[in-house]
Amino acid sequence: MTTLLLTEQVTREDRGAEGNYVLYGSSCAQITEEAEYVKKVFLQLSLFCSFLCFSRKHVSGNEAESQNSGWSGSCSPVARTMKETEEQLLLVSRENQVLKIKLEATREAGVQALRSASQKLYENYQTRSEELKKSHENEKKQIQTYNLQQEEKLQQSSENTSRLAEGIREKCTRIAEMEKRVQRMEEEKKTLMEKKMSFEKRLQQMMSRNEDSKRCLDLQRQISTLQEQICHLRRVIQAQHHSLRGVIQEAEELNNELRSQDKKIGNLTEKLTALETQNKELKDRVEFWSGQPKTKVSKAVWT
């Protein structure tokens, strides 16, 4: 008698809330587990089929011997074992079909989940890329506008500097002319004073010698005229000194304003340099995001 021994029977049922199998977005490990399970079932089926073929041949031989010896085939234990084995084999075959359906559902769910995740990732990337590009464009426009304003200020400061420099040159020229004029007046005053002193000395000599009174009167009138000229020159020189101090003060104020404009120009130049650097960085960013290749969502392939 040949006995069939079922060494391993693997059954697995995964049921949802209503008893039907539901699996969405399964992981690769779960799919691999299902595949290994199916392989085991196929292996068992192969073993059963081999054993079944062998048993049928053996049973056929035994039935022939039993008929010769007068035994009934329906009462043979081997026949009952074969029937039980066929029932078990049918059950395993049904389970195998169910597992195939589950495996296909798992694969399809995995493909759909991967495709959906890839599409969502691509859409998020595109949205973020457009947002960054728009943000960089707006920031670039703001920097360019501010840069233009700073350039206009720099141009205005440069014009003011040129105007101040021209004003200072004019003041310096005027100061030099006034100083020369005052110097000439001082020299003329000195000459008049020397001439007056000479006339006064001569008058004293004439009066000491009791010379002609008419000549003495003429000399006194000349001395008086010289004195008036000297007084006039003193007043003019004093006024010239006052004007000269005013012009010098104006020149100093212009010079201070010129230094202030130079400092402002230096600050504006530094700002423009920094803005040009930022503008270049933003330009590179915009070119980078604009030049990014658009990623296509590929179909998932399960093997």
Automatic annotation (TrEMBL):
InterPro entries: Tuftelin_GRINL1A/MYZAP/CCD68. Keywords: Coiled coil. Residues 82-292 form a coiled coil. The gene is Ccdc68. GO terms for biological process: intracellular signal transduction. PANTHER family: COILED-COIL DOMAIN-CONTAINING PROTEIN 68 (PTHR23171:SF3), GDOWN1 (PTHR23171). This is CCD68 protein. It comes from Thalassarche chlororhynchos.
